Amino acid sequence: MQDFIFYLHLGWEHIISLDALDHQLFILALIAVYSYSDWKKILILVTAFTIGHSVTLALSTLNIFRVSSNWVEFLIPLTIVLTSLDNILMKNHKQTLMRANYYLALIFGLIHGMGFANTARVMIAKSQSIFFPLLGFNVGLELGQIVIVIAILLLLFILLNLFKVNKKDWILFVSSAAFALSLKMALERIPF
Q1: How far apart are CA 45 and CA 69, in angstroms?
Q2: SS (H, E, C) the chain
């Protein structure tokens, strides 16, 4: 049980820490088009991200699949660039965008999962079984994502209801900010 809690804390820190800006920006860009009334859809969305994340984490930990960390560090902000750009270009087609986001969350979760793979491979390799460490890590990751989602939805609720911000302006502002920050990260991390 101690190992489970250790890895749960590690998963929590992986998404909540100040060093996790890329993951936080991805979640922000991913849910920017949703409203607080869409909370069930958002939970499914972040769970799809966690599933993708856990698949590549498991495959990498078992040495079945590996990608150079230089490429992963470049691809992670690129996923945010693409998600943000999708929000901007498809802002008038919300339903199509929302459906596409499930696929983006799952596929881009695969890429984000590789970001922690090297560390996990070293740490989990010492364990006799990878099941509980990966389960603990992914539960911590999911809990952290839910906290981030709640914070974003609270901010959105305040902006829409108290300050009467237009929803399309919110989507454009958040997506543009995430796009600019992640493009800067991607350009700084070009692996070639």
Answers
A1: 26
A2: CHHHHHHHHHHHHHHHCHHHHHHHHHHHHHHCCCCHHHHHHHHHHHHHHHHHHHHHHHHHHCCCCCCCHHHHHHHHHHHHHHHHHHHHHCCCCHHHHHHHHHHHHHHHHHHHHHCCHHHHHHHHHCCCCCHHHHHHHHHHHHHHHHHHHHHHHHHHHHHHHCCCCCHHHHHHHHHHHHHHHHHHHHHHCCCC
CA-based R_g, the chain, Å:
17
Report, as an integer, the average pLDDT of 57-67. 87
Q: What angle do CA 111, 112, 118 make, to 5 degrees?
A: 95
Reported as a pLDDT band with limits 50, 70 and 90, residue 128 is low
pLDDT value at residue 121: 75
Is residue 111 within 8 Å of residue 56, measured between CB atoms? yes
Does the pTM exceed 0.85? Answer: yes
Residue 115 near residue 72 (C-beta atoms within 8 A): yes
Tell me if 182 sits within 8 A of 112, measured CB to CB: no
